[in-house]
Design a protein that fits this description.
This protein has about 375 residues and is of the alpha+beta class. Helix content is about 30%, strand content about 15%. The structure holds 2-oxoglutaric acid and fe (ii) ion.
Length: about 375
């Protein structure tokens, strides 16, 4: 089975590597200035992203509803020790506060997945983002050894522990999300005999949005959906993440102390036959505070075919997508970006609109 790093190697993304030292810039350079940027979120919000207590006996139903209506929710009482969440933020903080020349020692190469650099989606936008990131795929040992020759093991231990803990949570959330669609552990063979999703692959993405001199004209991370099954995001207490909801526009995801944001990714959208929308999201930046986040981007083993699940397909609900591996889908994303889902769609957009609303009605019965 190809590793995720091999997958990325076959789909290089060419991002021109500028060398911004964000802290030294007093003015927003032209290359970072986004025009027509609507930074106002829906201020008079009657609705906000659902918050779900994982200890609630109705958690699966609530999660199913959140996935169908928002494609995103926040969880509390998720069982991840707050100490570990603080520690992973500390790793991010230590990394991004290193001098620029240090960080560039571990710069991500165009065909690599791991390392320091701009957002991979930068190549699809004419302007740069007020953002720096560090991607971890597998062990961070080699890079951390370069960054902290004396002190790497503590940072490595935290990352490995975070990774393991997130894997377990991702498995738990995956079943809760599938359960409300009527899909059981027996229905997903690659989930393992006990359904622990041990074979799932994942990437850990540390994100930093430095203090910005002109936040109304800058973009932290441009609008995108994740190419995952699901993403588990830990954000520090600084707001900036926004999700797009039909009819409401951009809605800020209010940070909850030690809460986690769960995104439906494109592959879960496919698996659910369009019932769960993969959430469009973006990040805005801040004049006075640095924002940090940690995304656990979780997908299936890279060679497993993902397709609309048989239980969600019928003559009245035809499959909306053909089957794809994560490997193949990442290739489609690298080529088509926001058109990647359409590139694997079987039904025309008009039919899809009709079919999705039909599917939504039917799903109430399935769940
Ligand atoms: O920083 C955030 O809140 C979002 C990060 C994100 O969307 C990503 O890493 O894919
Ligand atoms: Fe994302």
């Amino acid at each position: 089975m190809p590793s995720l790093s091999e997958v990325y190697r076959t789909h290089p993304v060419h991002v021109q590597h500028k060398d911004p030292d964000f802290n030294s810039l007093q003015e927003l350079p032209e290359s970072y200035t986004w025009t027509h940027l609507d930074t106002n979120s829906n201020c008079v919000m009657k609705e906000s992203v659902p918050v779900i207590d994982l200890n609630d006996p109705n958690a699966s139903k609530l999660i199913g509803h959140a996935c169908k209506t928002w494609g995103v929710y926040q969880v509390v009482n998720h069982g991840i020790p707050t100490r570990l969440l603080d520690e992973i933020q500390w790793v991010g903080q230590s990394l991004f506060s290193l001098p620029s020349h240090q960080k560039h020692k571990v710069a991500r190469s165009p065909d690599g997945v791991a390392g320091y650099g701009l957002a991979r989606l930068s190549s699809f936008f004419p302007k740069l983002m007020w953002y720096e990131g560090f991607t971890i795929a597998g062990s961070p040992l080699e890079h951390f050894h370069q960054l902290w020759p004396q002190n790497y093991s503590k940072h490595c231990d935290i990352v490995m522990q975070y990774d393991e803990t997130m894997k377990n949570l991702a498995g738990k959330l995956m079943w809760l999300m599938l359960d409300s669609l009527g899909i059981t552990k027996e229905d997903i063979k690659w989930g393992g005999s006990k359904g622990q999703f041990k074979k799932a692959s994942a990437v850990l993405q540390l994100n930093s949005y430095p203090i910005c001199p002109d936040p109304d004209r800058a973009m932290g991370l441009a609008p995108h959906t994740d190419s995952t099954l699901l993403t588990i995001l830990y954000q520090n207490n600084i707001s900036g993440l926004q999700v797009h909801k039909e009819g409401l526009g951009w809605v800020t995801v209010q940070p909850l102390s030690h809460g986690l944001v769960i995104n439906v990714g494109d592959l879960l959208h496919i698996l659910s036959n369009g019932l769960y929308p993969s959430v469009l999201h973006r990040v805005l930046v801040n004049r006075t505070r640095q924002r940090l986040s940690v995304a656990y981007l979780c997908g299936p083993p890279s060679n497993v075919e993902i397709c609309p699940h048989a239980k969600l397909v019928s003559p009245s609900q035809p499959p909306l997508y053909r089957s794809v591996t994560w490997n193949e889908y990442l290739g489609a994303k690298a080529k088509h970006f926001d058109k990647a889902l359409s590139s694997v769609r079987l039904c025309s957009p008009i039919n899809e609109l009709f079919d999705v609303s039909e599917a939504h009605k039917n799903s109430v019965q399935v769940g």
